[in-house]
Amino acid sequence: MPINVPKQLPATELLKKEKIFVMDEERATGQDIRPMNIIILNLMPEKEKTELQLLRLLGNTPLQVNVTFMNTASHESKNVSKTHLDTFYTTFEEIKHRKYDGMIITGAPIEHLPFEDVNYWDEMTKIMDWTKTNVTSVLHICWGAQAALYHHYGIGKYELPQKCFGVFTHRLSDLTVNLVRGFNDVFNAPVSRYTSVSYGEIKNDSRLNILSLSDDAGVFLVISKDEKHIMVTGHLEYDATTLADEYNRDLDKGIDIEVPVNYFPNDDPSEEPLNTWRSHTHLLFSNWLNYYVYQETPYEWE
């Protein structure tokens, strides 16, 4: 089934070229079906790239999905035009009266800051509190996962000696949870962060369940026992070349950055990287939409 997106969204044509079934809003309104309503709080600087990455995954399921993009009103984005935001994005004040079946909160390149020093943290906490009553299930990615662990469970982040950067092998620690149904016992996942969260604190919290972790990159997948919150500390949604783009961007800025681990063939940045995590990415998103959104959300929100 298709994803429903605004007709002129730049990602639409790229998705169609990839043979992903995209339906514009005009055609969607003529269908007698109850679609899943998903809202994405996109905190990434290059918003159009993130839109494409997430829409590609939401469109690869049997469910019809309506997607709404949201940005923070208390922070001015510098890497996307105001026209794009005004045309395709909404703010919390405009949608806080609504109910959503699912929500995605993306990462953000602000992990060096204490949470309270982020200029939109107050707005973030209001949004995360609102999800408790207005969203069936929330998928948090990277910094979004750290923010959720901190706000909902009081588990903070800590700075790493050097950036955890590359493609790491993770092993499953709980095979019985629907979120990882169909996963191999070990799988690859991209990670790009300067901070991490404590395995011990999460393991000792009776409200949380660790689903996968890496000897080198730490905790990766965490789910709350009430299945309301899913935290992914890496970037399964990344394209094959995203880590290369980040690596070259940092080099251009004069940042002393190591070559991403286990990423470039032969660890040679001149070679084209391969996507070795795609299948598990699609599994994660389809399992989330099926088991935690579609099968849990009420047909009619009261």
UniProtKB/TrEMBL annotation:
Pfam families according to UniProt: HTS (PF04204)
GO BP, sorted A to Z: L-methionine biosynthetic process from homoserine via O-succinyl-L-homoserine and cystathionine
Site, as annotated: Important for substrate specificity: S192
Entry keywords, A to Z: Acyltransferase, Amino-acid biosynthesis, Cytoplasm, Methionine biosynthesis, Transferase
Pathway assignment: Amino-acid biosynthesis; L-methionine biosynthesis via de novo pathway; O-acetyl-L-homoserine from L-homoserine: step 1/1
InterPro entries, per the entry: Class_I_gatase-like, HST_MetA, MetA_family
Stored SUPFAM superfamilies: Class I glutamine amidotransferase-like (SSF52317)
The EC number(s) this enzyme carries: 2.3.1.31
Keyword Methyltransferase belongs to the record: no
Binding site for substrate: K163, S192, R249
Annotated Gene3D superfamilies: 3.40.50.880
A GO MF label: homoserine O-succinyltransferase activity
GO cellular component, one term: cytoplasm
Site, Important for acyl-CoA specificity: residue positions: E111
Active site per the UniProt annotation: C142, H235, E237
Reaction catalyzed: L-homoserine + acetyl-CoA = O-acetyl-L-homoserine + CoA
Subcellular location: Cytoplasm
Function: Transfers an acetyl group from acetyl-CoA to L-homoserine, forming acetyl-L-homoserine.
Similarity field: Belongs to the MetA family.
UniProt name for this protein: Homoserine O-acetyltransferase
